[in-house]
Amino acid sequence: VLFVAEEFKGRAVRAARHSTRSRVLERLVEQCPGEVLDELVRELITAALALCYNDFGNFVLQRVLEHGTAAHRRALVEALSVDAASLAKHSVASNVLRCALVNCQPREQRLLAEALAADADGTGLHGLGRHRTASFVVREVKRVFRAEGPHDALLEISL
């Protein structure tokens, strides 16, 4: 399996956009230890925003969020938070955000929620909640923060 990971080095982003190579990358992320994949995941994170919108790349990023190391998840969430509101409004990219909200630690969940609340349209979570695709992401934000407790400041301010 290691030789396969070696073959993808320098080509991970292109492979993530391909219908069958993306599935090989998904299996690598699921099966290989994190340290073996560090270079591949770093390469994917540099193109994270573009891969979110891609029909195949979004699944690779979801596998990184599900099976990657804590450092991989943190770096990916930081990249996603740059344009979280636009990602939430896209039918494919929104699945990556929802996956991040389900699989990441509270610190990363809060970072994404704050990025969504600071929507460039000025409507915040309330406005995103009325969008046909973003509403599913907002629903996940609500679920995550209700689990934390009923008096979460982010929910009180934004919803």
Structure description:
By secondary structure, this protein is an all-alpha fold. It has a single domain, classed as Leucine-rich Repeat Variant. The chain has 13 helices and no strands. It has helices at residues 2-8, 12-16, 21-31, 34-46, 48-53, 57-67, 70-80, 84-88, 93-103, 106-117, 124-128, 134-148, 153-158. The longest helix is centred in the last third of the chain and has 15 residues, at 134-148. The mean pLDDT is 90.
N/C terminus separation: 46 Å
Overall number of domains: 1
Q: What does the oligomeric state look like here?
A: single chain
Number of β-strand runs: 0
CATH H-tier superfamily: Leucine-rich Repeat Variant
CATH-level-2 architecture: Alpha Horseshoe
CATH class: Mainly Alpha
Poorly predicted runs: none
| Share of helix, binned | over 70%
The fraction of residues in strands falls at under 5%
Tell me, rounded to a whole number, the average pLDDT. 90
Shape: elongated
Class derived from helix and strand content: mainly alpha
Pfam family, one: PUF_NOP9
Protein name: PUM-HD domain-containing protein
GO molecular function: mRNA binding
Keywords: Repeat
What's the SSE blueprint?
Layout lengths: L1 H7 L3 H5 L4 H11 L2 H13 L1 H6 L3 H11 L2 H11 L3 H5 L4 H11 L2 H12 L6 H5 L5 H15 L4 H6 L1
Helix pairs in contact: 3-6, 4-7, 6-9, 7-10, 9-12
Key structural traits:
159 residues; mainly alpha; Leucine-rich Repeat Variant; 0% strand
